[in-house]
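A quick aside before the break. I want you to see a complete sequence-to-structure record at least once, exactly as it would be stored in a machine-readable document. Don't worry about memorizing anything.
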Amino acid sequence: MTARHLHSGAFSAAALLTAALALPLPALAQVDPNADTGYATPPRMAPPAANTRDGASIGTVETAKPVASSSSGIDPCDALAADPLDPDRVKTVAAVEFSALDGVAARSACETASAAKPNILRFIYQSARAREKQKDYAGALDLYRKAAGRGYPAAFAAIGYAYDNGEGVAQNEKEAMRWYLDAAQRNNAWAMFNLGYFYDSGRAVPEDDAAALDWYIKGATGGNARAMNDAGFLLETSNTVPRNIEEARRWYVRAAEAGNAVGMTNAANFHLNGIGGPADTDRALEWYKKAADFGNADAMNGLGYMIYSGLGVEKDVAEGMRLYRKAADGGNATALTNIGYAYETGEGETQDFKQAMDFYRRAAEAGDSIALNNVANFYDKGLAVNADPVLAAEWMEKALRAGATFSRNQMRDNSANWSLSFRKALQKRLADQKLYSGPIDGGFGPQTQAAIDSIFGVR
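That is the input. The structure line, written in tokens, reads:
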């Protein structure tokens, strides 16, 4: 399973969304500006990439500032290079994120420590880590192999990572998986997460959500917060293992509490929309703020949505727009849709349909499903472009195939709010694909609905 994470009353020209995570096919709570009720749906959160060396992989999202000190019995090697991914590190010393590692200082300290105490395997491992930071991948791999040869669990995972990313050795996914399995059998939670990711994404092995979930839960039980998040994601979205939204929410909350920003954002989404449990805007606001403070663009968008809309907080359209733009700069496609919405409605920006269309197109290109719906609407209504029912139908099909629940509900409940020529054009597209054999009359009866259902969420 790759990337993941979205009813309507009266038709609106645009749909305002909350956060989506990074990551492909986002979409969340939607609000129909012309309706009395907002309609909530789940977020799409892609699993984090497996090939990272930062401790956010286990939930350590705050960067520790490395300090070399030999006082209080703390070895400078530990102070400069303790790895948050290594469960055998000295726990009384703050772990140092790979991004914050000072390769030169850590290498010097760890080589000194290793020479003085060659039987302390973590010094070998941390020395290898310092070399890796300096991009001396071959030297790092040699030391990882040395530590692994003497049974150091984290070194097995590091070798798997080297094969995974082609660092110091030719990239080889099957070999990476073999080393990750060796590490997992030695209770390394980071390796367990990566094994889950391999099965989840179909790397080196056939895609298998059941096996992925099993490894994610093992890694989560071992303390890996990203595994907690991805266990929640599979329980929320998988088509091959039983979905359990309540359990998904529990895993997202655990990931959030363990410090994982992706988990925080997912937990916020669920609390905002009342998914898998009661709605709680205070908790949603809290998690969005925390994740946004860690630079999570999806959380910035969610926080912007709450502030822009005045949900659980004083409404501040200008601040909401600022957060939308910051989220968009950070790669959140839904934020682009929200900015487009502001231009379309004139709330937060001077009304400008051309600007709105530009943002909707950008969001659509970045994978936001509601943006696809809104481009279709502009072509149907002739906003900023010449009315074109054929193009409107093409974009609506894209939205439906992308899994836009808002669009599916529009076609089911509010198709009469779309032009007759658009409805005929959509029926013709379905007929051309041999998905519909009824009359091209614009009447969205059972046959048309069944054809639409056949493409919904199917790329």
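Two observations worth writing down. Strands lie at 16-17, 30-31, 38-39. The two ends are 14 Å apart (CA to CA). We'll return to this after the break.
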